[in-house]
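We give its fold:
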Amino acid sequence: MTKANGPNYLVHFRRRRAGRTDYQRRLALLKSGIPRMVVRKTNRYVVVHVTKLSDNGDVTVAHATSQSLKDYGFAGKCNAPSAYLTGLLVGRMAKAAGITKVILDIGLHTSTQGSIVFCCQKGAIDAGLESSLDREKLPEESRITGSHLKSGADFAKAKEAIQKADLTVAKSGKKKVDKK
């Protein structure tokens, strides 16, 4: 098979060729004008951002990883309780920054029922953000609370600590976390 060349050969963007970005989905999310809650999962952690579109590109309003749950007494990993608590934490940060509504951006992750990305969205909704969520996509409540894990008892303590934490946004744009 020969390599295509000539004036009719279309070269896709580098991130599309590498399979990292679906530009049609991204454009549709950006056209909505609603801040995006970007959820990405790695083999070890869950990463959640709330971003707004600006003239200079995306601006991150709130950001947390499941690794930052250690500050609240929970061993954050890549599981449903960690995803829920990370979504709750980012939701509280976004509310402190003045965001009231978000739209879920799961990137190239598949939209599977009971997936970790929907646990993050549930956490953000419980933090007070508006978002459209199909209740059928959520895992069972026992999986969200972590009753199937050893850390099930720590979940309630961490949730309470996150809800009591004073999450204020400094003028520099950095988050100031004061745990009292």
The helical segments are 14-17, 23-31, 80-96, 116-126, 141-145, 152-164. Residues 37 and 111 are 15 Å apart (CA to CA).
